[in-house]
Design goal:
By secondary structure, this protein is of the alpha+beta class. It has helices at 11-19, 47-51, 60-66, 77-91, 126-140, 152-160, 183-187, 199-207, 213-217, 235-239, 269-274, 277-290, 322-334, 372-388, 417-422; strands spanning 3-8, 28-34, 39-45, 71-74, 98-99, 114-119, 145-149, 175-177, 229-230, 233-234, 256-266, 293-302, 308-319, 342-353, 394-400, 431-437. A hairpin with a 4-residue loop joins strand 2 and strand 3 (39-45).
Length: 438
């Protein structure tokens, strides 16, 4: 089994920017209460705030004195949890096993970094699958790195380190794949800090000259007990590249909601309608992960933090196509009247149902035996629909273009030949209907 780790640096910062896109590129920090006194400290700060001298762990009072022009936002654990679960739902379009587990393998409670784990499907190439994850993350409004290895810990270490980081660049998106059986060799030169050992124990090991995971892995086993084991984690096995491989499956639940806030109130319906596209795109990615279609929606228009009006949309044809949902929302929104400026919007999918079977014209020839080129074109269209509209059900494709006769065998890809041959006998007069699980 291969495991992909999706590493999301400064996830709290990214979640706030995704919720309020106008904060992108601005100087703002996220504050979190810490300690018995409940004093606020900086959980994470943007690049612009960093350049002004603010640092993670700095007290809120000192930060306000140093940079009073910076925007200070309180941490919202509920927002982060919803955003993390929404991202996991979108990943279900690529893999059936998603583990949204802990924030990081070092168990640092104050770290703003978070990671989730995805099981790589069989017969999938590591780099290809990693790039699909990165493309989906980009659509959902996140930046991340992906590491793929034989176990969770090695994948997490691979995802933390960038291979293509440029000078002056704080973060680079890329995918790193560790060959099968190459875990120990990859981990050997890495710092022992990655294990998250007790500081006193780590200082003792460094005094003895043990500074890398390779040095730690070569230590002899303890004469008695398990002193390198904490909470069921064997640190020696981690350093040797034999980390855990279990994944706790994630199951979507609750009402699907996508929201967005604006810097200032919007009173123009056309401008408000334009902002709906990212919401429908993200909602459709999550619907595809759930294997459901939107049957009824509600668009909430907030005039402040508590007061809002609702626009109900009942779809005559349940769909998980973003363009179809966007058109329905535009029509309903433009038919309403705004009495006050809107400061935020929320798209709620109130009712979901099984998506209908879809028909797609795959062959262009009319009344003639299809050529090898036309069959390859049809296969490319199936690939596009599978990658763009994957769900848990089977989809129906109507192969238009001939009234009978044998169907030529495509030269490639070979994985489709057997399914094509099985359907030859089912050719009917208008065309050939094929059910493909994707």
């Amino acid at each position: 089994m291969r495991i992909a780790c999706v590493y999301l640096p400064s996830f709290a910062l990214q979640a706030h920017i995704r919720q309020a896109p106008f904060r992108a590129g601005r100087a703002f920090v996220v504050l979190q209460r810490s300690g018995v006194s409940g004093s606020k400290k900086i959980l994470v700060c943007s690049k612009a705030a960093w350049e002004l001298g603010l640092r993670v762990g700095m007290s809120a009072s000192k930060a306000r004195t140093l940079a009073p022009m910076v925007e200070f936002v309180n941490a919202d654990a509920a927002l982060y949890q919803r955003a993390f679960q929404a991202l996991a739902e979108s990943f279900l379009t690529l893999s059936l096993t998603i583990d949204i587990g802990g924030e990081s393998e070092d168990q640092d409670e104050n770290s703003p970094h978070m990671a989730m784990y995805v099981r790589v499907p069989k017969n999938s190439r590591g780099d290809s699958f990693g790039n699909k994850l990165l493309n989906l993350l980009d659509k959902q409004g996140y930046r991340a790195r992906v590491g793929i290895a034989d176990n969770r810990f090695t994948a997490w270490v691979a995802a933390r380190e960038s291979q293509v980081k440029k000078p002056g660049e704080l973060f680079a998106e890329d995918c790193r794949t560790i060959p099968r059986g190459g875990n120990a060799a990859f981990l050997a030169p890495k710092s022992i800090d990655l294990l998250g050992l007790n500081k006193d124990v780590q200082q003792m090991l460094e005094t003895l000259g043990i500074k890398t995971l390779g040095d730690f892995a070569e230590l002899p086993p303890p004469s008695h007990g398990h002193r390198w084991v904490r909470e069921g984690v064997d640190f020696r096995r981690l350093a040797q590249g034999e980390g855990p491989t279990f994944l706790h499956g994630f199951a979507p639940s609750g009402v699907l909601v996508e929201s967005m806030s604006f810097e200032s109130g919007i009173a123009d319906l056309q401008a408000l309608a334009f902002s709906l596209r990212p919401l429908t795109d993200r909602a459709c990615d999550r619907l595809q992960g759930r294997g459901m279609a939107a049957a009824a929606m509600t668009l909430r228009l907030y005039t402040d933090d508590e007061n809002y009006s609702e626009v109900k949309i009942d779809s005559a044809e349940p769909s998980l196509d973003s363009a179809h949902l966007l058109k329905s929302l535009h029509q309903a929104l433009l038919a309403t009247e705004l009495e006050q400026a809107i400061v935020s919007i929320a798209l709620c999918i109130d009712q979901e149902c099984e998506p209908a079977l879809e028909e797609a014209t795959l062959l262009d020839s009319q009344g003639q035996k299809p050529s090898n080129d036309s069959v390859r074109t049809a296969i490319d269209r199936i690939e596009q629909i599978r990658d763009g509209k994957r769900s848990c059900e089977q989809r129906s494709f109507l192969l238009q273009g001939w009234s009978g006769g044998p169907m030529p065998t495509p030269v490639q890809p070979a994985r489709y030949r057997s399914s094509v041959r099985k359907e030859r006998a089912q050719v009917s007069q208008p065309g050939l209907q094929v059910l493909l699980p994707i």
